[in-house]
Give the backbone structure.
Amino acid sequence: MNWDHKDLLGTRELSREEILFILDTADSFRDISRRDIKKVPTLRGKTVITLFYEASTRTRISFELAAKRLSADAVNITASTSSYVKGETLIDTGKNLQSMQPDVIIIRHSMPGAPHMLAKNLQSSIVNAGDGAHEHPTQALLDLFTMREKKGAIDGLKVAIIGDIAHSRVARSNIFALDKFDTEVTVCGPPTMIPPHIEDLGVNVEYDMQKAIADKDVIMMLRIQKERGGVTYIPSIREYSALYCLKEEHLARANKDVIIMHPGPMNRGTEISDAVADGPYSVILDQVENGVAVRMAILYLLLGGES
Ligand code: CP
């Protein structure tokens, strides 16, 4: 299979075959990060820019490591230290960066559609590292990679996604990606955090967390998106935690081989307890490790790599 997308903007636009192609390519890169010398010359001479208008630990660092481990030159810009603070528009910033001939620009922005606007106007490949509450495709791809690694296959999985669904780009990208497979997805949270008509995306809705996790292979916990006003949708964090914080006692009635996922950052004690986050079912740090391999695969494919 050849990769023929200029950009990676969302999982909605990817076919099942393209998702599997990315995951298989990531498999071939996974070992590099565990070597003494964590570098191969694959993308020597290529330039990757990360342009982040929102905070990030995992996504930005793993893209930088992915680029460096493939020998590309990686340059990082955060909004707070860029000419954005002097009033420069996103498109002007994009065009100025383009003039320096980067091969890939990875952007995170609070505005849904910001990566799509750059993709239309710039020749560089654009990767969406999160646009508002819209999509976070590389997170979903590393989540599917981790599900496949831990459970053997994506087809057949029953997945519960629990938390602030309304404001979660991670939930949306996972729903779009899992819909390409033979999966059963249930979203769960307070009614105010479940978007109306979300069933139209092919998911079940459950408001009782214990029922939502009952027979699931994968439980994905999400934090409340405070930066998008998530806390205004609930009476209090205390009440939310009483109903939607995953604790050890809930897992007593879950599948014995369930895996617990979280995209991070976690708010311990709000949506997940210490015992669950650090417990035997948790694959949260595996997700982070796999994020480097998946992002290496994405850079490699966008820059002309083949199977
Ligand atoms: N999962 C995720 O996007 O984490 P960061 O915000 O730290 O990048």
About this structure: The chain is about 35% helix and 15% strand. The chain has a mean pLDDT of 96.
